[in-house]
Design a protein that fits this description.
Blueprint (H helix, E strand, L loop, with lengths): L1 H24 L7 H18 L4 E6 L6 E9 L2 E6 L19 E4 L1 E4 L3 E4 L31 E7 L4 E5 L5 E6 L6 H15 L3 E5 L10 E4 L5 E7 L5 E11 L2 E4 L3 E3 L2 E3 L2 E2 L6 E4 L2 E9 L3 H7 L1 E9 L4 H11 L11 E8 L5 E7 L5 E8 L6 E11 L1 H15 L6 E6 L7 E6 L6 E5 L17
Antiparallel strand pairs: 1-2, 1-9, 2-3, 3-4, 5-6, 6-7, 7-8, 8-9, 10-11, 10-19, 11-12, 12-13, 13-14, 14-17, 15-16, 18-19, 20-21, 20-27, 21-22, 22-23, 23-24, 24-25, 25-26, 26-27
Length: 454
């Protein structure tokens, strides 16, 4: 028995020795992990700098805002960047002569759980998307547009570079820009496509739409995302948001979405703006609808800005703002964050505000006075209000509301298919002009108003 145990142990030692020798003599890798990582880093650098006309980046930050086209050319340790223009303070877009606005800064590649591409010195074009407290997007967030300036490289080849935002984890794809395509054309063609395809609302249609299904879509304010809406089996409203980026041939969705069991992914520009066919299913389309300006006002939420208050209403706003300076619990100042006309968050048609302490609203009805939907009369509905609404009327909001209620307005806009602003001009007094905006924005554009002065 002892001899048998000895034989088994001896055999095991021989096998272990053989395995150890085999590992030494026949290694799986001929290089260390650090060597392989360094080679991958240099491979990525070679790929990035090899594109003669640079790369077209499909860039996403805050997904509800959608994606933007960014052009980047890597040379040595420098990156030259151009982009579609997002806001007034964005160093991007086309200049007065039609040339792409470009910014050049340093970039680096480093090893940090893989290869990371970093725009590590300030570039006003691309860092605009990641800067906190973005001056063009200060609505309820300190994160700005929630973009990235560091990207984990997941794949790199001559055909494409696939990355993930280090902070957001958003998928970012770059493809080489053909040498015969200008950066200016990318910006201008995307703008033309967006204008052509824009509609405030759409209806899903087509041969592949199951009978009985009703699905609509609306644009998310001035942002690049579609909000699909349908009723589930219990009659409850359901929404699905589809962020997209604009290309010369249509909209590309960030990802495929499932809307009431129907897979949808991107829209083609086509040859008519009456409808747009889906990229993944030509038997499905979105029929566009152009509501009247009155419909826009009465079904949407529209934001007022102090800088666009007309001469008629301005003294009343100023009087209320003066009283708000000591309206707080300890005689501190109450700030107005937003002032809106249209639908509230709980689907009431009203003028409303959000302030640092309250959210007052006061209802109204709107009578459309012509077929074109460009003339409307607003009538107050005192039954639609809240406690804060009653309180604010006592400190001057009643005079502000009286500039709207009981008045008839002619409506004009910048682009009727999807207006970014609507101007309401009193038919009886042209000094009573109220301009409202589709994109959420603070009432006071002067950001010093919101800073604590104590």
């Amino acid at each position: 028995m002892i001899k048998k145990i000895y034989y088994i142990l001896a055999s095991a030692v021989v096998l272990m020795s053989f395995a150890a020798c085999s590992l030494k003599e026949d290694p799986i890798f001929s290089e260390t992990a650090s060597q392989r990582s360094g080679e991958n880093l240099e491979k990525v650098r070679t790929v990035l700098t090899a594109a003669p006309n640079g790369w077209l980046m499909s860039y996403y930050g805050n997904l509800s805002i959608g994606g933007y086209n960014i052009m980047v050319k890597f040379e040595g340790d420098s990156a030259t960047v151009a982009s579609e223009k997002w806001g007034a303070n964005h160093v991007a877009g086309l200049d007065a002569s039609g040339k792409a606005v470009k910014s050049t800064s340093h970039f680096k590649l480093e090893l940090s759980m893989g290869t990371v591409l970093s725009f590590d010195s300030y570039n006003p074009t691309i860092h605009y998307f990641s800067m906190p407290n973005n001056p063009d997007y200060t609505y309820d967030t300190a994160d700005g547009l929630s973009g990235d300036m560091e990207f984990r490289v997941m794949h790199a080849s001559a055909d494409s570079v696939v990355m993930r935002g280090k902070k957001s984890n958003n998928k970012i794809v770059m493809t080489p820009i053909p040498v015969d395509r200008t950066w200016e054309s990318i910006i201008s063609e995307a703008s033309a496509t967006e204008t052509y395809m824009s509609s405030r609302s759409y209806t899903l249609a087509g041969a592949a739409l199951p009978e009985g299904k009703k699905i609509t879509a609306t644009s998310n304010g001035g942002y690049r995302s579609l909000v699909f809406e349908y009723r589930d089996q219990y009659g409850q409203k359901q929404t699905v948001v589809a962020p997209y980026i604009v290309k010369d041939d249509g909209f590309e969705f960030y990802r495929e979405v499932d809307v009431d069991g129907i897979k949808l992914n991107g829209l083609l520009k086509g040859t008519t703006d009456d409808y747009f066919v889906f990229r993944n299913n030509p038997q499905l389309q979105l029929d566009s609808y152009m509501p009247t300006l009155a419909e826009n006002i009465l079904t949407g939420t529209w934001y007022q800005r102090y800088g666009d208050v007309g001469a008629y209403a301005k003294p009343f706003w100023d009087a209320m703002l003066e009283k708000l300076k000591t309206y707080g619990k300890n005689k501190d100042e109450v700030k107005i964050y937003t002032a809106t006309v249209g639908m509230t968050t709980d689907n009431k048609l009203a003028c409303s505000m959000t302030t640092s302490t309250d959210a007052p609203y006061w209802g109204f009805s709107g009578d459309v006075l012509n077929e074109e939907g460009t003339r409307v009369k607003f009538t107050q509905m005192p039954s639609v209000n809240n406690k804060a609404g009653k309180a604010y009327r006592k400190i001057g909001w009643d005079k502000v509301l009286d500039c709207i209620y009981g008045h008839t307005f002619d409506l004009t806009c910048d682009y009727q298919r999807r207006p970014s602003w609507i101007r309401m001009t009193d038919v009886d007094d042209p000094t009573n002009v109220i301009t409202v905006y589709s994109t959420p924005s603070y009432f006071m554009e002067d950001q010093s108003y919101y800073q604590d002065k104590n």
